[in-house]
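Reviewers asked in the last cycle whether our approach scales beyond single polypeptides. To address this, we selected a multi-component target totalling 887 residues and predicted its structure end to end. The input consisted of the following lines:
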Amino acid sequence: MKIDCVCTSWYASVRTLRPDSLMEANNDVALDIIITNVVSVFRTRCHLNLRTIALEGSNVIYKPEVGKVLMKLRKPRITASIWSSGKIICTGATSEEEAKLGARRLARCLQKLGFKVKFTAFKVVNVLAVCTMPFHIHLIQFTKNNRPIASYEPELHPAASYRIKNLKATVQVFSTGSITVTGPNVRHVAMAVEQIYPLLFECKSTMR
Amino acid sequence: MSSRVCKTCGCTDIDIDQARGNAVCMGCGSVLEDNIIVSEVTFVENSGGGSSAVGQFVASDGTGKTPVLGSGFHTTLGKESRAQTLLNGKRQINHLGHQLQLNQHCLDTAFNFFKMAVCKHLTRGRKMAHVVAACLYLVCRTEGTPHMLLDLSDLLQVNVYILGRTFLLLARELCINAPAIDPCLYIPRFAHMLEFGEKNHEVSMTALRLLQRMKRDWMHTGRRPSGLCGAALLVAARMHEFRRTVKEVISVVKVCEATLRKRLTEFEDTPTSQLTIDEFMRVDLEQECDPPSFTAGQRKLRLQQLEHELAKKIDEVQGEICSYQDEIELELESSRPKLKGPYASYAREDSSDDSVSVASGLPGNEDDADEELKAAAQQLTKDFYSELMPGAGEASRAEEGSEAESEQVVLPRYPPLASLLGPLPTAASLGLSESIQKCITEKDVDGNSENGELDLKGIDDDEIERYILNEKEVKIKTELWMQQNADYLKEQKEKEERIAKEKELGIYKEQKPKRPPKKREPIRASTAGEAIEKMLEQKKISSKINYDVLRDLDKKGSSPGAQPEETPSSPGGRKLSGRRKRNMAALGLGNPISSVGKRLRPLISAHVGKKPASSQAAKASAAVVTAETSQPVVVESGPVVYEDAMEEEEEEEEEPCVSAMQLMGGNDYGCDVDDDDGL
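The resulting structure, written as C-alpha cells, was:
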C-alpha cells in the first residue's frame, strides 16, 4: 500500500519516506491523502494602519469591531487576517509551499502600500487533510477497541474522533470510510494516517 | 484543669465546680475563679423553635478560610467553600434529577461523580449547571435510562453541544467509559408518549424488530438514535393500524421532519420493506443491506464511469485527428533545416509561446510543444516536467511578462530533457535527485528570511500592483466606507469625547478587568488600640460607626481607676469585652452575636450588679462565643497586661458608650445588636 500526498514539490520526498510496515500488504491500493487547508502565521514586525489597508486595497474586508482586516488573494487562493500589531494569519492554502508563497505575496503587497514590512516568524500552524478508506468502518467497534483515545457521540456528531497525543493530531472517522486529519504539519498528518490505518482495518465492515 | 496554688494559703487542693463555674480552694475557702469559661457545646434556639448547636465546623486540613461574615451573612453559616460547593451541587442534582424522574440511587451516583469532578477541579471556569447536567447524563448513560442529552438541554435551556462538550470532558477526565447509545432503549419511552393504549407492548415489540433490522442494514451508524426510533415507531404504528402522523411523532422524538422522511426513504430502499407485515414478523431476511451512503456513493461512481467512457470516446476521435495532424507536421519539419543543441528547444519553445495563449502555465506550454513532436513522449515529458520543475514552473508562471527570465531559469533544465527521451529509469533517478537538490537549496533560501528580509523570489510585482487601488478608487472607496460605517465612527467619537471630558473633570476611570477581591489577614495586635488603628486602615469607611468615638478611646486611656462596682462584671467580662472589640475589628460576627445576644437576655437578670448590664452582657456573651471560636486571636499570655488597659477603656466605654447610645437615640439592646450587624 502506498500513501501518496497530492502536494507538488514534496511528491518525490514523500515517496522516499514510505514506511516499511505498509509495504508489506500487497494490496496494490493507493491511499490518496488530499490536503485541503493549510493555516500559517507570520509577523511583519511593524505596526500596520488597518484603515489605510482597508481603503487602498481592492480585495479587503475591514472589521473595525474585531480590529482586523481580511484580505483575499487570488493566485494562491488565500485569505489572510491582518491585525494592526503586525501579526497575520493565512488560511486556505493547499500545500505548505503555497502557504509560504501566499504569505510572501501578501507581505509584498503590504510593502507596496507603504509599510516597512519584514517577513519573520513564518510558521505553518495547522494542516487539514481528507482521506478515503476503501472500506466502511464499524464505528461502535472502533470506539470499543480504542476506549479512552477514541470518542463517539452519535447525538452530537456523526464521526468518531481519535486524538493522537504525541503527534498532536486529531482524526475524525466517518462510517463511510472517509477520514479527516488535522495536525501541525504535513508530516504529522501522514504519520497519523499511517498509525490509524491498521486500527481502522480491524473494524472494517464492507468493501466499497 | 490545671492545678494551681492558692494565693492566700498556698494549698494545692482546689475544687472546681463546673455547674457553678467556680474554683475554690479547699484549704482556706477563697474563691480563685468565678465564671469559668466553659468549652462545651452550647445550643441556641431557632426561630422555628428547634435548637441547633452553636459553632462552626473547621476542616482538619487547616487550610480552612473562614469567610468574612459581614458579606457572607446570607450563605450557609460560614462553612468552608468546598462544603458549600458540594452542598450546592447536591441541591441542583436533586432538583434536576426529580424533574427527570431519576431514582435515588442514580442521584447518589451522580453526586459521587460530582464530588470526583470537584476534587479534580473540573468545576472551575464552568457553570455549575453544566457540570451538574453532565454528571446526571453520565449516570443516565451508565445505568441505561432512556434519557437523552436533548432532554437535559431542554430543561436547562442550554445549547446541546455545549452540554455535550462538558459531558465528553467529564467522561474523559473521570476515565468513565459510557456505553454506546442503543436506540432500542428509547422505544418504550417514546411508545408510552405516543399513547398506544393496550397495544403498547405489541407496537413496541414490532418497533424493536424493525430497529434491529435497521441495524443489520447499516442505517444506524453515525445517525442520531432518536431519528431511527421515530421512523421505526411510525412504521410499527401503521402496521398495527394506529394513525400517528409524522408531526406527532416528531414532537415526541425531537427530530425534524426532513430527517424522519429521509430515514423512511432509506428503509424503503432495503429489501425488508418489500415484505408484508406477516412475513416480516415471521421471516428475517438473511442478506444484509449496504449502508445508504454506500449506495449513494455507488450511484455517483456509476455516473462518473459513464462520463469517463463518453470522454474516452471523444478522446479517441480526437486522437485520430491529432495523429493525422502530427504526421503532416512531421513531414513539414523534416523538409525544414533542423537546429541542434539546447537552443533548438529554446527556439521551439519560443514559437510555441507565440502560438499559445499567455495564460497557460509552463507544463501546458511544454505539452503543446511536445504534442507537436511525438505522441508517445507526451505523457513522459509531462510527468517528468511536473516532477522536475514545480519551482521553476511557478516562477515562469508568475513572471509571464518577462519571458527572458523564465527561459533563463528553464534553460539549464533542458539538457536532461534530451536524455529523458532515452532510457526511462536513469531519467527517473535524475529527476529525483534534482528535485531533492532543489529541496535542499530551498532550505538555504529559507535561511534568508530569518533576517526579516522579504524574499522576492517568485513574486510577481505587476500582479500585486493590481491589488492596490489608484487614487480615484481610493477616494470613492473612502466615501463608501465612511457612509457604511457611519454608526461605528459616531460611537467612537462619542467615546473619545466622553473620555476627554472625564479626564478634565478628573474622574476618569480606566476600565480595568475585575481583580478578585484581596483576602485580608486577621489583624494581630497586642492592644485594642492598635487593632482599631489597623482596622481603620484596612477597612473601608462604614457609615454606621462613629469613628471619632473610636479614635478617642485610645487617647483617653490615661485616666485613672476602674470603678470598683465594675468588679462583679468581673475581670472576665472586661477581658471579654476587650477581646470583643478586637474581634469587632478583625472579624465581623453577625449571626452568632445576634442569636447569642437574644439568648442572653434572660441571663442578664441573673447577673447582679452589672451596670450597663445589657451592653456589657451582650459584649460578654459575644466575646464568649468569639473566644471559643477564634482562639488564635485571644492573647492568653496577658490577662494582667491588658486588664489595665481594659479597665481604662472600660471606663471610656462607659461614657462614650452612653453618649454613643444617646447619639444613636437609643434603646439599649437593639442598638448594640445593630451596631454589631452594621459592622
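The CA atoms of residues 76 and 486 of chain B lie 53 Å apart. We regard this as preliminary and will revisit it once experimental data from Aim 1 are available.
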